[in-house]
Amino acid sequence: MSKVFVAGGSGRVATELIKDLIKDGNEVVAGSRNPEKIVKLDGVSAVKLDLHAEVNEIAKVMDGCDVVYFVAGSRGKDLLQTDAFGAVKTMMAAERDGIERYIMLSSMYALQPQMWSKYKALAAITDYNIAKFFADNYLIHNTKLAYTIVQPASLTDEPGTGMVTLGEGDDTTNPIPDVAKVLTDTLKYKDTIGHIIMMRSGKTPIEDTLSNIDDPVAYNNAGLAD
Q1: pLDDT at 54 over 70
Q2: Are strands 44-48 and 67-70 parallel, antiparallel or unpaired?
Q3: What DSSP designation does 100 have?
Q4: Quick one: which of 2, 115, 134, 136 has the most CB atoms within 10 Å?
Q5: What pTM did the predictor assign?
Q6: Top-confidence residue, 98 or 221
Q7: DSSP alpha helices (H): ranges in the chain?
Q8: Distance (Å, rounded) from C-alpha 149 to C-alpha 213?
Q9: Where is the NAD(P)-binding domain (predicted)?
C-alpha cells in the first residue's frame, strides 16, 4: 500500500477520501490550514498545510509520501492562491520530493471553456473553472507527474450509490462519497494514469468503469477539446 498525502484534508471530499484510503490499507498524511478539523482515524497524520507558503515549505510536509491528492478548495474565496497556484505549488513540491503519482480533483469540463455556458451549474462557477483550467493545464503540460484528473459534475451531500457514468454528457450531479470512491480507486488502476476522468451519476459500478477505462482523452496544448 502507499503513503498518501492529501492536500485540503479537512474538506468534505477529503474526509470521505481519507476514510476510503485507510480502509484500503494506506497510510495518510492529511494537510490543511485547520489540521484540527481533519478526521481522526488510525493511520492518519494531520499536518499544517499553508498553500500560500513557498514551494520548499510545502515540500517539507509532503516529503516521504508516495502519492499526492489535491482536493483543496476555497469555495470561491481564494481562487488564485488556493485553487490555481496552490495546486501548482503542490505539483512543484511533489516533483521536488521525487513523488511521481499525482491525483487532482477538478471540475466537469474544466479544460473545455466552450462548454461552461451550456450548463447553468457550470456557468455559476465560471471563476472556479478558470482556476481549475490553469491548474489542470499546468499538470498536463508542465510537469512529468504520473497524473490523473478527476472531473466530477456538481457535488451533493447525498449518500453514495457506488455507481457512475464516465465521459462527456449532460451535466448532472455526483454524491460526494462516489467522488471520493473514484478518487480512491484511481490509485488502484495504473491504466488511469494520464487520464482525465469525467464522472457523473450513473448505473455502472465504479470498479467496473475504472478497470475498463478507455484511451486517454486528447487535448491540444491550449487544453481545449479539438
Answers
A1: yes
A2: unpaired
A3: -
A4: 136
A5: 0.93
A6: 98
A7: 12-23, 55-62, 85-97, 120-123, 126-141, 176-186, 206-211
A8: 13
A9: 8-188
Q: Which residue has the cell 447553468?
A: 120
Q: Are strands 195-201 and 163-166 parallel, antiparallel or unpaired?
A: antiparallel
Is the pLDDT at 106 greater than 90? The verdict is: yes
User: For residue 150, what is the enclosing H or E element?
Assistant: strand 146-152
CA distance 99 to 179: 23
Rg (CA), the chain: 16
Quote the CA–CA distance of 175 and 169 in Å, as a whole number.
17
Cell of 108: 466537469
CATH superfamily of 3-208: NAD(P)-binding Rossmann-like Domain (3.40.50.720)
Contact between 51 and 34 under an 8 Å Cβ cutoff? The reply is: no
Give the residue-averaged pLDDT of 24-32.
98
Mapped onto helix, strand or coil, the DSSP state of residue 216 is coil
Please provide the distance, in angstroms rounded to a whole number, between the alpha carbons at the two ends of the chain.
38
Question: Given the C-alpha cell 487535448, which residue does it identify?
Answer: 219
Q: H-helix or E-strand containing 103?
A: strand 101-105
Which residue ranges make up each domain of the chain? 3-208
3-state secondary structure of 195: strand
220-76-129 Cα angle (round to 5): 15
**Is 225 a residue whose pLDDT tops 60?**
no
Name the H helices within 24-84: 55-62
Q: Is the pLDDT of residue 215 over 80?
A: no
